[in-house]
Amino acid sequence: MMAAPKTEPPKLPSRNPIPLSASQDAQVRELYYKRVRGYCATEIREFASCALNRTISATWACRQQRLAMNSCMIAHASQEEQDAAREEWFATRDERKRERAEKEKRRKEQEKFHRAWWGLPPLPEDEDAPVTTDGKR
Fold first, then answer.
1. What is the pLDDT of residue 113?
2. Contact, 111 vs 118, CB < 8 A?
3. Which is nearest to 85 in space by CA: 20, 131, 133?
4. DSSP conformation letters of 72-116
5. Which of 82, 89, 49 has the alpha carbon at shortest distance from 68?
6. Is the pTM higher than 0.85?
7. What's the first-to-final CA gap in the chain, in angstroms?
8. For 133, phi and psi rounded to 5 degrees?
9. Integer Cα distance of 62 and 48 in angstroms
10. Which ranges in 1-62 belong to alpha helices (H)?
11. What was the pLDDT predicted at 20?
């Protein structure tokens, strides 16, 4: 008997099949666009400098720069770049979580200060707040 030829498993459209929420997907998309704009920064800059102080005439006056910019963007706008942006988003997830926690901590501290300053009663969740030397929380 002949051995059956090995077939490769079907390719997934992305290396990251984990579904994301709409806001998370928007964050990934923004990273993706930022990466592509970074690759084509010189072409974008050339087109912008050509189109500066022009209105409708930019269509034909800056045609060469626009085509160069568009071809660069199309060349770098690939599924691999989307996957790289998604991987970068997942890699920085812990950092964003830590930043959110620090921001929430600062907000609570500022609210406690505000309430103490104006002599407002502490929030029920702040009952365990330390009492200061003047007897206030």
1. 92
2. no
3. 20
4. HHHHH-SHHHHHHHHHHHHHTHHHHHHHHHHHHHHHHHHHHHHHH
5. 49
6. no
7. 85
8. -65, -25
9. 9
10. 22-39, 41-51, 58-61
11. 87
pLDDT single digits (tens) 74-110? 999 999 999 999 999 988 988 999 999 999 999 999 9
Rounded CA Rg of the chain? 27
Task: Find out whether 50 and 65 touch, Cβ atoms under 8 Å.
Answer: yes
Q: Which amino acid, residue 82?
A: Q
Q: pLDDT band at residue 41, thresholds of 50, 70 and 90?
A: very high
What are the C-alpha distances in Å from 73 to residues 9, 10, 88, 107?
31, 28, 20, 41
User: Side chain identity at 129, as an amino acid letter?
Assistant: A
Mean pLDDT (whole number) for 19-46: 94
User: DSSP character for 21?
Assistant: -
Query: Which tens digit of pLDDT belongs to each residue from 67-79?
Result: 999 999 999 999 9
Distance CA 131, CA 6 (A): 73
Query: What is the number of residues in the chain?
Result: 137
